[in-house]
Amino acid sequence: MKFRPCIDLHEGKVKQIVGGTLSDRVPDSLVTNFATDLPSSHFAALYKRDGLSGGHIIMLGPGNTAAAAAALAEYPGGFHIGGGITPDNAQGYLDLGASHVIVTSYVFKDGLLHLENLKAMTAAVGRERLVLDLSCKRKGKEYYIATDRWQRLTSVAVSRETLSTLGVYCAEFLVHAAHVEGKRSGIDEDMVKLLGDFSPLPVTYAGGIRSLADLELVLSLGRARVDATVGSSLDIFGGSLKYDDVVAWHKKHQ
Description:
Blueprint: E1 3-4, E2 6-10, E3 13-17, E4 32-36, H1 40-49, E5 55-59, H2 65-74, E6 79-82, H3 90-96, E7 100-103, E8 108-109, E9 112-113, H4 115-125, E10 130-133, E11 136-139, E12 142-147, E13 152-157, H5 160-166, E14 172-176, H6 189-198, E15 203-206, H7 212-221, E16 226-229, H8 243-252
Parallel strand pairs: 1-16, 2-5, 5-6, 6-7, 7-10, 10-14, 14-15, 15-16
Antiparallel strand pairs: 2-3, 3-4, 8-9, 11-12, 12-13
Helix pairs in contact: 1-2
């Protein structure tokens, strides 16, 4: 199990946002846990120093290309990148230094899975450089993939069958539990267990991690097969969980 670092970008700045509060329809709904004037390259340099690879840069809306490029230049090969990725622009981000591109909305549009779009993404960059973002929200006993900044639920449930079907076309999955993302309230245990039991590929879970005990829970419930991202809870993003302690925990489990 690995700790996967993150850089979330909004309006060109590094921020941590409560999941699902970023909406074009309701402009005043945004809840921000953290924002800084420190450049994206500052955090990229930190992760590079500590040998943390396979993290993700997420561009939340327009105006983030320059900040993303700066982080990629600081740590070439260290990040996956997502946010508005299509077959037309994907290679450009790989050329800037991303190891993988992450895609959601291009594949899951209008509430549906568009398999032809997924195949087009795979053809454009190769399966080995594609990550599918299956970020989701809980509805009853199921988890449904959410798009449009997690505002819209699709008809596609995250399940054993879905993971098996989609795993043919990509190298990894990234799964934010959007209903707990940014809330520092603990993980969705059922989601982590589902991923550990059924994902045929490397998978990273994000959402609600607030302590080393939560990381241990991901390790146990995910059967050491599920990696974890910590965002708002880290002290480098205004939280109380020490980044250095998480790095030490990560190195202990390698």
